[in-house]
Amino acid sequence: MKLNDFLTRELGGRGIVDTNRDVLLDEFFRNPTKYIRDKGALNEIQASGHYLSMKRAVKGEVIFDEDIRKLCDKGVNNLPGWSLAAAEVKATVHNSTKHFLDAAAEEARNPTTTSAPEKLEGLYESVHNARRSHAVELPDGVERKKTGNGNGGA
């Protein structure tokens, strides 16, 4: 997300400057005074719950991206690779990434959720089972002109 998009969406546009339209949030969080020069506006922005939530989310994404790069450099680029990786490789990533990947690998090995087709009783049966003549029914007072052989062909 870009800085101006965040300021517009979460803070009613407070602090928007045209030159900041292409600034990524992680750049802004690293050096906010570079992008918001009005100290009052910056203090108001930084005091908001939206700012703190987004700062945590962006930091988590940055950490995860760094960890993914480290793992790819070591040849680990999928869950089976993570499961088979040496302890030394796993030790190079943050705990949050380890927990996330361990949980995903466990879920892949032993799925706890199941999926089955969901039958929606009565909701779509009439449409699903309708013949073409029902699907193209015209409103009262409008006569249908018969064309073709009557089975949908022209």
From TrEMBL:
Chain intervals with Basic and acidic residues compositional bias: 134-146
Which Pfam families did the record assign? DUF7578
| InterPro entries according to UniProt | DUF7578, Trypano_RHS
Domain (DUF7578) spans 1-60
* Location of the region described as Disordered in the Swiss-Prot/TrEMBL record: 132-154
What is the name of the protein in this document?
Putative retrotransposon hot spot protein (RHS)
Q: Which organism is it from?
A: Trypanosoma cruzi
**Which lineage is the organism of this entry classified under, starting from the top rank?**
Eukaryota, Discoba, Euglenozoa, Kinetoplastea, Metakinetoplastina
